[in-house]
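Supplementary notes for students who missed Thursday's class. We covered one full example, reproduced here. Read the sequence, then the structure, then the short commentary at the end.
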Amino acid sequence: MRSYLEDDLTGVRLVASDMDFTLLADDKSMPEGMPGRIRALEEVDVVFSAASGRPLYTLQDMFPESRDRMAFITDNGAGVVCRGDVVFKSVIGEATLAELVAFTLERAPEAVPVVCGLERAVVPAWGRAYDDALRVYYHEILYVDDIGSAREEANKFTVYFPENNSADAYEERFAPAFGGRLSVTCAGVDWLDVMNRGVDKGTGIARLCEHLGISPADVIALGDTDNDAEMLSYVGHGYLMANAEERMERFADFRAPSNNERGVAQVIDAVLAARRAPAR
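Structure (token representation):
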């Protein structure tokens, strides 16, 4: 794969970054100076977007200084917000949600089902044992005795696998059961996400591009794993992080430095340099 330094960045209008193992280092820390970089991008007519499986309320908490000047592709594309305007949301039907909960409780007893509401996550009371892991992604959690009877407007259903076996569960159980009618993806070794059919980070970027009136050809997307595949393939500048697995190389054209090297920040700095350069 080619280095991002070989790419022509002069026409870039949107930079969309995954969070875990992409923007965030392994210790979950954010690169220093991100609010300043987001402001600087805005000054050269470039929008920065987080593109994550996390819900809107958690992502907004992570960008307290920038939330009103950037975009959010949330819940793997099930929600799109740009500078405070709701561009899109996709709500899972009650019957489908109940089916997903029942299936997980029966067929994946080693895992924790999470109903991802627009304003909070709903988790069975026994899942409180994993609160530290859950709260990294869901800052608002309601624990209930009977998750099967929970009635929550949700745009994603996710499953937490404490044994880090989400890929096997995807292949052997969830994809065969739901892959034909829902969007099912692994979001790391310990998470499996389910959204309405046609919902993924790629379609989230498509909706954001339409809202902004820009072409996908002028978009950089940065990611590292399966739930980033669609957006990496969709945009004109697909950047795979250096820490990503080799199997992901088919989805992107360029390599960015690793998350621990603050690769996203380095790419943003390169975009700023290209956009500020005088025209030849």
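Commentary. Residues 94-196 form a domain with the Hypothetical Protein, Haloacid Dehalogenase-like Hydrolase; Chain: A; domain 2 fold (CATH 3.30.1240.10). The mean pLDDT is 96. If anything here is unclear, bring it to office hours.
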